[in-house]
Write a structure and sequence with these properties.
The complex is a heterodimer of chains A (347) and B (259). In chain A, helix 3 (59-94) packs across helix 12, helix 4 (106-120) packs across helix 11 (245-267) and helix 8 (204-223) runs antiparallel to helix 11. Chain A has helices at residues 2-29, 37-46, 59-94, 106-120, 131-151, 159-184, 188-196, 204-223, 225-231, 235-240, 245-267, 273-285, 289-313, 322-344. In chain A, 76% of the residues lie in helices and 0% in strands. Chain B has one domain (30-40, 73-207, 214-256): 3-Layer(aba) Sandwich (Rossmann fold). Chain B is built from nine helices and twelve strands. In chain B, helix 4 (114-126) crosses helix 5 (142-155) and helix 5 runs parallel beside helix 6. The longest helix of chain B is centred in the C-terminal third of the chain and has 18 residues, at 172-189. Chain B is globular. Classes of the chains: A mainly alpha (347), B alpha/beta (259). Chain A: GO terms for molecular function: transmembrane transporter activity.
Chain lengths: 347, 259
């Protein structure tokens, strides 16, 4: 049994990694200046340490690939992985297939935290470039705590109540955020950006800043795969099998908030990724988190890469906020899940 | 040393008392039944004994040691619990759910060993679940799901099995199937069994000692014949009953009488 799972996991991870690499090259080709496939591949390979090709391309082409498009591609991959793995973790630990950092109001909390830091702690040298992610994380934690407390009723939380609590907190914190924007004056542009979500104008530095968050967050979550499976039996059954449910729940939620907070602090609010991707992957590979977690993380990366490629290329020389793209796909999907859940009595 | 010492246990939800001055002992190897009407505190009592709920007052000792001082994992190696609801409708397979019973025995972060898998296989065969092993549990009937629950508890290899109304949602065939497997397990491995039962006739046939709860108090505790007195049962359950002797097993059985 364990052997079958290991084989299945290797096959799926291999397939998705191949898809990811292919998507990476294709996405770099696409843009206002179209680059041919082989040329793109050569430029990319030339930047790897083992390759030293004679340039058949211009410096401008190299700059487009290496300085403009590739950082953005990596940013999309990292953000997609972060949001999607958070979705898996939230859904698993809360036993609620609708739990997603955006729907639970965690993203808007993070955006509120980030906005606060931009407005009031702009020049704080204490934490330097870590200030905004930290505030973002605190905002995410605060709103999550609020949602959890609001949804708790006689020590239990049912699925629909949790979603409603998310809506309440989203409206409230959204109002605070709008208020901040209204009084912000010249930083208005910057904060509006957080509301809509965008991967434009980011550099390698932003990617580098996020990678430790993704790596440590994913590492922690992947140690919890067996526990995430166990808790699907129910909280008391998991307790009887020796799992410390309350403690585990807090930690998984904190780590998920950290991932969301870090992502939002760089690219703003991008909704529904953590809802769509894990659900589709669950249909493909089943409920076992030992496969579901790594696969959803990879698939989330690929999904957001294509969403961003669409965002920057669908209208020539114009950008659409990526949050708009994911909402176009995600909101109908959410509606479908809700409807399906209501019909069956559970989701 | 007793397996369980329940000492002066009281519990209340808010200001409403549900258990009052509960005190009894259970010895290793017993099959101990807890009976009583709805709302008498059976489930609350069993939840304090499985370590899920800390009573407002009093102590519960397991093997002489306070149950709250056990680590969750250590406790899971000693006690397995079969809940009334059984397993939720998951898309995990029967085999995967049963294998989850090995959790307390696994070293952190390690997979199931060959030995673990062997234990899972033996239990699946014993309970007649081998042919269902690759089916999702959400495709099973309620009775089959309760058998999967029992299999998971067996794989856990506990010394004590606690059952909270295990037969409530089952037809008589599955009721007997579950109870017979529990008895067989009790006899072959010498495990202790503590069960909350609604059905007095099952309690009488499968338990060697009974505790009768009424309104949060112990009404009586002892041998089956002493606890199942028709007058007491009739007054506690507020219903007309006739007690007869089981023609084969020579234990008290109850017939309901319509008015």
């Amino acid at each position: 049994m364990e052997k079958i799972i290991r084989t299945k996991r290797i096959i799926w991870i291999g397939a998705l990694l191949a898809l990811l690499l292919m998507s990476l090259v294709l996405s770099v080709m696409i843009g206002s200046v179209h680059l041919p496939f082989t040329l793109t591949l050569k430029i990319l390979l030339n930047h790897l340490p083992l390759f030293d090709l004679t340039p058949t391309w211009t410096l401008a082409q190299d700059a487009i690939v290496w300085n403009l498009r590739l950082p953005r591609v990596f940013l999309a991959l990292v953000i997609g992985a972060m949001l999607s793995s958070t979705g898996v973790a939230f859904q698993g630990i809360l036993r609620n297939p609708l739990a997603d950092p955006y729907i639970l109001g965690v993203s808007v909390g993070a955006a509120f935290g980030a906005a606060t830091s931009i407005l009031f702690f702009r020049n704080s040298s204490l934490l330097g470039y870590l200030t905004t992610p930290l505030f973002s994380f605190l905002g995410a934690l605060l709103s999550l705590w609020f949602v959890m407390a609001l949804a708790k009723h006689h020590g239990q939380r049912d699925r629909e109540t949790l979603i409603l609590a998310g809506v309440v907190v989203q409206s409230l914190i959204g109002a605070f955020l709008s208020f901040l924007i209204a009084i912000s004056g010249q930083q208005m542009q910057e904060i509006v950006f957080w509301m809509m979500g965008s991967l434009a104008n980011r550099s390698w530095q932003d990617v580098g800043m996020l990678i430790p968050y993704l790596a440590s967050g994913f590492f922690y979550l992947s140690l919890q795969k067996r526990d995430l499976n166990l808790i699907s039996l129910g909280e008391s059954a998991a307790t009887h099998l020796g799992m410390n449910v309350e403690k585990k729940k807090i930690w998984v939620l904190v780590v998920g908030s950290l991932l969301t907070g870090a992502a939002v602090s760089v690219v703003g609010i991008i909704g529904f990724v953590g809802l769509i991707v894990p659900h589709l992957m669950r249909l493909l590979v089943g409920p076992d988190h030992r496969i579901l977690l790594p696969i959803s993380t990879l698939a989330g990366a690929i999904f957001l890469l294509w969403a961003d490629t669409l965002a920057r290329s669908i209208i020539p020389s114009r950008e659409i906020p990526i949050g708009v793209i994911t909402a176009f796909i995600g909101a109908p999907f959410f509606a479908y899940l809700l409807k399906k859940g209501l019909r069956r009595g559970h989701v | 040393m007793n397996l369980f010492d329940v000492i002066h246990v009281q519990h209340q939800f808010g200001t409403i008392p549900v258990l009052q001055d509960i005190e009894f002992q259970i010895k290793e190897g017993e099959t101990f039944g807890i009976i009583g009407p709805n709302g008498s505190g059976k489930s609350t009592l069993i939840r304090t004994m499985s370590g899920l709920l800390k009573p407002s007052r009093g102590k519960i000792l397991l093997n002489g040691k306070s149950i709250s001082s056990y680590r969750k994992r250590e406790l899971a190696k000693i006690i397995a619990v079969l809940e009334q609801e059984g397993i939720p409708p998951l898309s995990f397979t029967v085999e995967e759910v049963v294998a989850m019973g090995r959790y307390p025995w696994l070293k952190p972060l390690s997979d199931l060993s060959l030995e673990d898998e062997q234990i899972v296989q033996t239990v699946l065969e014993k309970l007649g679940l081998w042919n269902l092993r690759t089916k999702s549990v959400n495709n099973l009937s309620g009775g089959q799901r309760q058998m999967v629950s029992l299999a998971r508890a067996m794989v856990q290899q506990p010394r004590v099995l606690i059952l909270d109304e295990p037969t409530t949602f089952l037809d008589i065939g599955h009721q007997m199937l579950v109870m017979e497997h529990v008895r067989e397990w009790h006899q072959s491995e010498g495990i202790s069994v503590i069960m909350v039962l609604h059905d007095l006739n099952l309690a009488s046939q499968y338990c060697n000692r009974l505790l009768l709860l009424d309104n949060g108090h112990i009404k009586s505790c002892g041998e089956v014949h002493d606890v199942l007195q028709p007058a007491t049962i009739s007054s506690i359950y507020k219903t007309e009953i006739i007690m007869i002797n089981h023609p084969i097993h020579q234990v008290p059985q109850f017939l309901l009488t319509s008015k």
